Amino acid sequence: MTTLKKLTAISTHQVIRDKSVKVIQYTSRILTGFYRHNLSPEAVEALCIVSSTCSLGRKAFRLLKSVNSLHTLSIKLAALGPWHGVNVLSRQVLELIEILEHFLWSLYFLHDNILFLGRTKLLVPYDAKSCERRAYDCWAFADLCGFVRRVAKLGLVRWDMSKIQRALESAQLKRRQMFRAEEERAARDSIVGVAVGTSSSAARGGNGDDSSDPVASQVQLVSEEEEIARLSQQLASLHLDQRSLTWEILRALCDLGVSGSWWIKTANGKWLINEKLGFQGLGEGGQGVCGVVSSLMTISDIIYQMDD
Questions:
Q1: Can you tell me the mean pLDDT for 101-107?
Q2: What is the chain's alpha carbon radius of gyration, rounded to the nearest angstrom?
Q3: Res. 289 pLDDT band, cuts 50 70 90
């Protein structure tokens, strides 16, 4: 892909445009959160206007996205496999968590669309505070589901890696034993052949054991080599999955920091937040850092996939 085509693809990519606006929005929050006391009131007001304008613009980007999310949810429900028993790290549990995540995103986008229509005076009357609180509830719990799902999936990948690693070590040990047996057989045949001048099978009293057959030994050795190559390829693929999931977990943690902070801010004592457990959000500056880091990670992922 040429540089011009790549830049065109980046500039027209919907997610990149949304995340670019999010970078501007949360950069404004970083400045107002960490440097509010060093800025003039006019600068603080200007940054707040930038943040609110970007927020409204991103809501416009997400208009009717709830329909897309419901469509994705229906696909996930149709693809849900049979239940094979209760297992905390089973893939069926991960599928159910993913379905719950998409359901919560659908509810969030629905409330987000209502908020956009209300703020633009296209929908009146509506309870903005209640709608905003429900939207933050859905957003935070959807991010929590995404974080838990990725951590559990990483656990499954590491479990598969340990199984394949043990199988690979066993295959390598068996190959070394076969090499050793082949070398011993060749040495025996050489000694017997010189001393007696007959074939190795006749020298051993006519024992037609397959383990003394050079052709059978070579076929079995080739089979073990193919098995080792297959296991090595699977292990390398799982290593890539592990690295990708670790990256996704870090991004999901940043997303959870943003949504969780908004949720705590609007919880007003609900769910035992603030009043009894003493939970506090990240603050405006910390929330901005998480939002910027998450957005940049998403943009870098998309650009990396374009290079592939």
A1: 92
A2: 30
A3: very high
Contact 258, 291 (CB under 8 A): yes
Query: Which tens digit of pLDDT belongs to each residue from 237-263?
Result: 999 999 999 999 999 999 999 988 888
Provide the terminal-to-terminal Cα distance of the chain, rounded to the nearest Å.
10
How remote is the C-alpha of 297 from its chain's centroid?
12
Tell me the CA distances in angstroms from 203 to 187, 197, 199, 211, one per residue in order. Answer: 13, 9, 6, 15
Residue 238's pLDDT is 92
Distance between CA atoms of residues 257 and 2, nearest Å: 37
Domain ranges of the chain: 1-61+282-308, 62-277
Alpha helices per DSSP H over 197-282: 200-203, 214-267
Supply the DSSP symbol for 123.
S
Q: Is 38 exposed, middle or buried (0-12, 13-18, 19+ CB in 10 A)?
A: exposed
E strand or H helix at 81, and its extent? none
Predicted confidence (pLDDT) at residue 129 exceeds the cutoff of 90: no
**Ramachandran region, residue 209 (left: φ > 0; alpha: ψ -120 to 50; beta: rest):** beta
Whole-number pLDDT of residue 210: 44
Distance CA(64)–CA(114), nearest Å, equals 10
Nearest to 265 by CA among 145, 135, 109, 133: 133
Which residue is listed with tokens 């080792």?
Answer: 228
What is the reported pTM?
Answer: 0.79
- What value, to the nearest 5°, has the Cα angle with vertex 129 and ends 126 and 130? 75
Which of 69-73, 157-161, 238-242 is the least confident region?
69-73
Residue indicated by tokens 């998409």? 102
